[in-house]
Specification:
The complex is a heterotetramer, with one copy of chain A (234 residues), one copy of chain B (730 residues) and two copies of chain C (91 residues). Chain B is built from 26 helices and 26 strands. Chain B is of the alpha+beta class. Chain C has one domain: Mth169, Chain: A (2-Layer Sandwich). Chain C has helices spanning 19-30, 54-69; strands at residues 2-12, 36-51, 75-83. In chain C, strands 2-1-3 form a three-stranded antiparallel β-sheet. The relative contact order of chain C is 0.33. Bound molecules: adenosine-5'-diphosphate (ADP) and magnesium ion (MG).
Chain lengths: 234, 730, 91, 91
């Protein structure tokens, strides 16, 4: 399994993702420059967190036009794994690879803190190592992570089970109190219909080692790393 | 020589005194032209020249085994082991923040980051130290500054891992905004900003130059009075995105040997960065052509270009002939770079506008020519003394505890630090909320602890002793994580030193810092002075010498945190309590007075207690540790419970005479920690304590969901949490 | 009482650095809009309110801008006030 | 070639929550502007550019809005284009 980590000007989780892939998971790592028009044979492309182009105007607005995004769109069409984390999720929405948009947190404040996530899909390449209905602890760090989609889009997402992660309390209850940013339906992460493009606001790469306060994020990286085999077989 | 050639309004505009002007004319043997006058004005400002504090600052100790770079460079550097150096510095941005809190604070963060980058280090952490007037009156300052610090740090992707915030009337018009940055670099890649090698090129990289903040440096050197409305356009808007690109490009640059030095552009812009860079090499000079400087605006004069304080710019000294390599690195990051001049050996800074010479000044006149100001200090009236026996006895310690925990100076800082990304970098092992923050050094077992501290109320009551306390408290915070204090950076925030009492405060503050750092063997490797923190008609600020400190733990697996961990662990007080309440938060909150002197400080005992904690931590005897500071023992104990999510049961506290109950619970005697230990580790800890001649006493046992002193008070943890967590919600 | 809507535009002062504008300009250039010479990004604030008269409305909005909507240190503002005839004209 | 300036206004769609608008409204109320009934906060973008004709300018600006300046899921936009007679009218 070869992971590609995209670097835009203003990206900052690239090195953290790289660290986890390379040092913790021990998978192959390839950084992809935003001006590259070549995914260099990566099996899973990560769009990491940060403030690509300063997030000026709107988060992800300018980044979506980078040459690498064209490739990523085609890669996704071919069924390649694309994983947007935080800013990466925002970029995927802007690029139309995922529905909806991420707007200002309801508090209007940036939030960096631990959240609990209810894992609603475990049949995905990204979550296969999570247990059914598992609650994982993953930190968020964003100012614009409030998920929005029009009612029709939202109900389609729900009906087809495209919500992968929802903010919940420690006991797994999806309650307003556990919603850190005002996301509709407490949505923290969604997947496309085909099941190969995931976007999530929380940062699994920040919790892949227990010394950083928790290691639940590792499950997601391991899921992807382990999925290589299945992709080949299927 | 007369002032005929220059009118006094012009002098005031560049913030030079007639005496200083006379010195300039004498040294130059001619009157300076307007560009030269402007350049000298900024570099001779207090902010750049330290003319008031320079001689006093020499008293600070700056040598030490680990020191790789002391004061004089963009930041200090110490060796921390495994071939790594920690680079760090603190800086003030008080005046800009008073006027435009968000941008003032944001650009303060941007500036200190560039100082660390200039040393070739990758910035890994930010801290802050903030002071405001009381809420809700100072909301605008508070909200703007906190948002600005987060806005810059979050965007650039450097975690803000610690800091401090206090509220006091004296800061209502003069908020204090200090930012500290810590970076890492391999010892052998540490860079110095020296313009070495005649003929090497000077390149300006990063943002285009606009008319930002012209006279900003001189502006930071005057009182905030009616003048400031005129100078308001001096506010700059930061671009953290651009700085992120600049940072990455500079990291790439540090990998090549095409580069001789990197120097940030801060206060006084191009003038000071070129002069400082050349000034560090005896005999060196520089030649620059302002027409080559990329500009954001039309119609800028050489004066504007030389004095502009546009943010996010760096000066790079490049090996002659290798400019294109540098240009390539910057263009990869979509950054402009331009060769604007070269290094000479004539000891002068010569400024051209194409072919015309618009300024020519000796480097040493710029960097070192400002005549030191020798002022006289006069001790002010001492603060009212405190007679303990006139205080009513403590009736309900539980009620007092709740009020103290809810007071803005002691309550939870979560509403602040959760707005800062404190995790990016995957290194934050101990996050904000406890004592010092602790970051791991990836690829090693090393942990780097860092903190900022200052109890300015103590400094107000006794600037010398207060400054000593600031050092001691910072050291305790480092020690409470299990790390060994290593080195210090300081930011001296004071009022107008032209007033004899303030100058006296400055002298005393520096004397106190020096004494404490000597006693604890802590070199001061960098720092900053911010004077004139007073505004017409309102009171001056308390002397606020913020101490930034770093420390090292050899294996961060042995780190300590504040929260109680296991039911049934013994909870102990390390160190002994004095019968003292001077300057305490308890006096302020419960009795509405600020009086007495700060608690006595025995630096030898501090060192002994610190050594004990470190030895016990290394031996694995401690489950948690927290120092006692503002609010005293009971507040510290409550914090151990709150952060551990676990209560404590204690027998009644019956201090031996003459120790009063209020002093035992809420007195702020230094040199004390609350620790928890497994019962089986008790005997070893007792032996160790005896060996270090430190007193330890049993307070109680961890567990349950109440905090209780039998027969004295009993509170639900939830109730305590409620008080503590809502203290800032005005 | 009249129902009015004020449309306030807040822009960074011309001399003040506008990182957002610079970056958007570059973004537009990458998209092929090379004819763009300058971009400034500001805020648009629409305030629906009641007022005794148009004159009063303008005075109130001016005060709002000075006190809250614009930061006079780095921003300029201007606005128009229009009368709203039907309750939900503007939506 | 003409020099034009386009003034683009981007507003949150009515169905989208506008926490900023709510907060500004509250802020205004605290300052005593109790007559305010609703506040929406959007963006103002001023683009200075060259164009062959006013018609072309409008087409280009419309394209900029669709591609970059506004996100149609959450935002509406409208703009005006004016001719600039003197070089630095907007400074
Ligand atoms: N302005 C701030 N920014 C970031 N963290 C802060 C700030 N103020 C306080 N903190 C964090 O909150 C915790 C408690 O702060 P403080 O009460 O000043 O600690 P101490 O008394 O141990 O010095 C520390 O971890 C500190 O780093
Ligand atoms: Mg402490």
């Amino acid at each position: 399994m070869k992971f590609g980590v995209v670097v835009f000007p203003g990206t900052w989780s690239d090195r953290d993702c790289g660290w986890v892939i390379d040092q913790v998971v021990g998978a192959q790592l390839q950084y992809l420059w935003h001006k590259d028009a070549d995914l260099k044979g990566c099996d899973c492309v990560i769009l990491p967190g940060g403030f690509a182009y300063g997030d000026y105007l709107r988060t992800g607005a300018i980044a979506r036009f980078a040459p690498v995004m064209q490739e990523i769109g085609e890669f996704a069409d071919r069924g390649g794994l694309v994983w947007g984390i935080c800013n990466g999720f925002q970029i995927l929405c802007e690029a139309g690879l995922l529905p909806g948009a991420l707007i200002r947190n309801a508090s209007l404040e940036y939030r960096c803190e631990w959240t609990h996530l209810a894992v609603e899909r475990t049949d995905l390449a990204f979550t296969s190592q999570c247990a059914e209905r598992e609650v994982i602890r993953v930190p968020i760090s964003h100012g614009e992570g409030s998920y929005f989609a029009e009612p029709a889009v939202l109900s389609r997402l729900e009906q087809s089970g495209q919500v992968v992660f929802r903010y919940c309390d420690a006991g797994g209850r999806v309650v307003p109190n556990a919603n850190p940013n005002g996301s509709l339906h407490n949505i923290a992460g969604i997947i496309n219909k085909r099941g190969n493009v995931l976007g999530m606001m929380p940062h699994p790469e920040r919790c892949a080692e227990s010394e950083l306060g928790g290691a639940d994020g590792l499950k997601l990286f391991r899921s992807v790393a382990g999925s290589a085999l299945r992709v080949l077989v299927s | 020589m007369s002032l005929d050639t220059v009118d006094s309004r012009r002098l005031r505009e560049v913030a030079l005194t007639p005496e200083e002007y006379r010195v300039i004319v004498e040294k130059l043997r001619r009157p300076p032209n307007m560009v030269e006058l402007g350049m000298l004005g900024v570099l001779w400002s207090e902010h750049c020249s330290y003319k008031t504090s320079k001689t006093l600052l020499r008293r600070l100790p700056s040598a030490g085994e680990a020191v790789l770079q002391g004061p004089g460079e963009n930041a200090g550097a110490v060796e921390i082991g495994s071939g790594w150096a920690a680079v760090f510095k603190i800086e003030s941005h008080n005046h800009p923040s008073a006027i435009e809190p968000y941008q003032g604070a944001a650009t303060g963060v941007g500036g200190i980051i560039r100082d660390v980058i200039a040393m070739g280090a990758r910035p890994i952490a930010l801290l802050d130290s903030l002071r405001f007037g009381p809420l809700p009156g100072s909301r605008r300052h508070f909200d703007g500054v906190v948002a600005g610090i987060g806005g810059y740090g979050n965007c650039i992707g450097i975690p803000t891992v610690g800091g401090e915030v206090y509220f006091d009337e004296c800061y209502a018009n003069n908020p204090i905004v200090n930012a500290m940055c810590v970076g890492l670099v391999r010892v052998d890649r540490l860079m110095r900003a020296r313009a070495e090698g005649t003929g090497n090129s000077l390149m300006l990289v990063g943002a285009d130059t606009g008319r930002d903040g012209i006279h900003g440096a001189s502006f930071a050197s005057v009182e905030l009075d009616e003048l400031s409305s005129e100078r308001r356009p001096a506010v700059q808007v930061g671009n953290p995105f651009l700085e992120k690109c600049l940072l990455e490009a500079c990291m790439d640059l540090a990998q090549t040997d095409a580069v001789v030095a990197v120097q940030d552009l801060g206060a006084a812009g191009l003038t000071s960065s070129v002069a400082e860079c050349a000034g560090r090499v005896p005999g060196a000079g520089a030649r620059i052509d302002v027409s080559l400087v990329p500009r954001r605006e039309r119609g800028m004069t050489p004066y504007d270009v030389m004095l502009s304080e546009s943010q996010e710019r760096m000066l790079v000294v490049v090996q002659r002939g290798r400019e294109s390599e540098v240009e390539r690195i910057f263009s990869t990051w979509d950054l402009t770079s331009a060769v604007i001049g070269d290094v000479t050996d004539d000891g002068h800074l010569t400024v051209f506008d194409q072919t015309e010479v618009v300024a020519r000044l000796p480097i040493d006149l710029l960097t070192d020519g400002a005549p030191p100001r020798r002022l006289a200090g006069v001790a002010p009236e001492p603060a009212p003394s405190l007679r303990l026996d006139s205080l009513p006895p403590l009736l309900d310690p539980g009620e007092s505890l709740l009020r103290l925990l809810a007071s803005p100076n002691l309550c939870s800082r979560r509403p602040i630090f959760r707005r800062y990304d404190h995790m990016v970098g995957d290194s934050t092992v101990v996050a904000p909320g406890g004592d010092a923050a602790l970051l791991r050094v990836k690829g090693t077992r090393l942990g780097l602890a860092m903190t900022t501290d200052c109890n300015a109320r103590y400094c107000h009551l006794d600037p010398n002793l207060g400054a000593q306390h600031a050092v001691a408290e910072a050291a305790r915070n480092i020690v409470a994580t299990g790390a060994r204090p290593l080195a210090v950076t300081d930011c001296l925030n004071l009022a107008n030193p032209d007033r004899p009492e303030v100058y006296w405060e400055l002298e005393e503050t520096i004397a106190g810092l020096a004494q404490a750092c000597r006693a604890l063997e802590l070199p001061i490797v960098s720092g900053n002075v911010s004077l004139y923190n007073d505004s017409a008609g309102t009171s001056a600020i308390h002397p606020t010498p913020v101490v930034g400190m770093i420390g090292v733990i050899d294996d961060y697996a042995h780190r300590l945190e504040v929260g109680l961990k296991h039911e049934g662990d013994f909870v102990l007080l390390v160190g002994s309590s004095l019968n003292d309440l001077g300057g305490s938060e308890y006096l302020k909150v419960e009795h509405g007075t600020v009086a007495g002197r700060p608690p006595p400080l025995d630096l030898t005992r501090e060192a002994a207690v610190n050594r004990l904690i470190l030895a016990a931590a290394k031996a694995g005897q401690l489950r948690s540790a927290h120092d006692c500071a503002d609010g005293g023992m009971l507040v510290a104990l409550a914090e151990c419970c709150l952060l551990g999510g676990m209560g404590v049961r204690c027998p009644a506290l019956r201090p031996e005479a003459p120790l009063r109950l209020d002093a035992a619970f809420f007195g702020e005697t230094p040199g004390r920690f609350i620790v928890s230990v497994a019962s089986r580790a008790m005997p070893e800890l007792q032996t160790l304590a005896r060996r270090h001649h430190v007193e330890i006493s049993l307070l109680g046992m961890a567990g349950g969901d109440t905090v209780e002193f039998e027969g004295q008070f009993r509170l639900q943890l939830d109730q305590i949490r409620q008080a503590w967590e809502t203290g800032l919600s005005f | 009482m009249t129902r009015v809507v004020a449309r306030v535009i807040v822009t960074p002062k011309p001399v003040v650095n506008d990182p957002q504008g610079i970056t958007v300009k570059q973004g537009l250039a990458t998209l092929g809009f090379r004819e763009v010479e300058d971009v400034r990004v500001g805020k648009y604030i629409e305030v629906s309110m009641e007022a005794e008269s148009m004159h009063e409305a303008r005075e109130r909005v001016d005060a709002m801008c000075r006190q809250l909507l614009a930061n006079h240190i780095i921003e300029d503002f201007h606005f128009e006030v229009d009368q709203v005839l039907h309750r939900d004209t503007h939506r």
